[in-house]
Amino acid sequence: MLTDGELRERLAGLVAEATDGEVEAAEVLAGTARLADLGVTSLGFLRLIDAVETEFGVEVDPGAFETLDDLVRDVRAREPR
Amino acid sequence: MEAPLTWGQQDIWRAVVAAAPQERYLNIARVFPGPRRPVTVERARRALDALVARHESLRTRLTGPRDAPRQLVWPAARPHVEVTSEPAGLVRDRLAAEPFRYADEWPLRVAFVVDGEHVTDVVLVLCHLAADGHAADLVVRDFRLLLIRDSLPPVTAATPRELAGWQRSEEGTRVSERAVAFWLEEHARMDPVPDAALVPGAPRFLEATMSSAALAAAARAVAARHRVSSSTVLLAAAMRLAGGLTGQRHCGMRVIVGNRFAADRRDVVSTISQEGLVLLDLDAPSFGDLVRRGWSAAMRAYRQAWFDPYAMEEAVSAAGPGIRSFGCFNDQRLVQRDEPGTAPPDERTLRAAAERTEVAWTDAMDRNICDFRLHLGGEPGRMEVSLYADTALLGPAGIERYLRELETLVVDAACGEL
């Protein structure tokens, strides 16, 4: 299982992929800004959720997270123990 | 090779049957300039051959009975090609003016606009069974590249035949059933839509188009304020006004969803867009609240827009008297990402721009699958909103009023009045 730090980095990488690099992983990791404020669009959110669900096998509620840390918490809470 | 239709194709086929023989509005047209280093017609024909060889959907016709057609993929195809020196826009309109003959015509019509030997513009008209808006853009991208290169990397995205196969698999059925269950839950929360009460005109369906720079600027300003897309702002406004027409507090509107956010569907050349269902409680403290609510509702809706349309129709038609979604919202703007803001426009500029807004009558039809349909198009600085409505539901004056009120609502919101 990934550590919290590794999970955070991986998810930031998925944000970058979901936005075709318009939002960089480093920006996402740097602070606590809302993803929408960093420039993640609706399409970016949908791609991100699809990628997270595919990679981690968990369901993600689009309304459940605004920041990277919210997403880390959400994925952690839904991971099979 | 024969295969069943995909869900997306079935959806289009239902629309074709409902509007025939006036379904030309479903055709998708694109015009693009020839390469900077000029190419001959012969070179362009070779590029077209390679394009058609590359994408199965461009070599597909329908076969079988009208109430249950199947797709028939051919090993090769020679679509209609014109070589002309007419203006490209004129050629586009002419090629798009007739519906396709689904069983005995290839699903694309092409014109090479020439100046002497060389191709200055390429006109493409696609049958909606072969492509949705995004797929049409992928076809254009490939066509442009093939005009300057001899080959492209192989296609890795699924073909329509493969999609149809997956959709009939256990997993595909499960995905569809989940979407149907979501739609039924949303229907259970809807208030009834009253029956259409007006005496319909002839032709029965009318389309008006509003061209507005004010709406484009105002929607962008409200979107930036609430960190959502301008599309969400316009959807919330459209639904609030729809609720005004129907008297509903809990109103459902269908939205056209591209369905390309899943990595394996991103580059599919076929029609995979389908309808999603957005349900909104319109009783919100402010328009801003409604917009934020609209964002969450739209995000949920986008994820449940991949389903068997016949199963969906059967399920929701049993939802109860008057319990149905009202209208369809289709944002077809090419620029889906709002340009990051220059300074938001001031109130005087917005109001002055609204003075220059125009509304024109742009289409009329006797039959259609949908009784209320909004299309968003135009350029980034000037939005075109078309409303197509059943005159039994909304008369000509009502259609124009709806469009004007949509602009006023969003402009007022941008000016901080709501």
Automatic annotation (TrEMBL), chain A:
Which PROSITE patterns does this entry report, sorted A to Z? CARRIER (PS50075)
- Where the record annotates domain Carrier, the positions are 5-81
Q: Matching InterPro entries, A to Z?
A: ACP-like_sf (IPR036736), PP-bd_ACP (IPR009081)
What Pfam families does the annotation carry?
Answer: PP-binding (PF00550)
List the protein's name.
Acyl carrier protein
Where does this protein come from, organism-wise? Nonomuraea rhodomycinica
From TrEMBL, chain B:
Pull one GO CC term from this UniProt entry. enterobactin synthetase complex
Species: Nonomuraea rhodomycinica
Name of the featured protein: Non-ribosomal peptide synthetase condensation domain protein
Pinpoint the Condensation domain residues.
38-267
GO MF: 2,3-dihydroxybenzoate-serine ligase activity; phosphopantetheine binding
Q: Which InterPro entries match?
A: CAT-like_dom_sf, Condensation_dom
Provide the GO biological process annotations: amino acid activation for nonribosomal peptide biosynthetic process; enterobactin biosynthetic process; lipid biosynthetic process
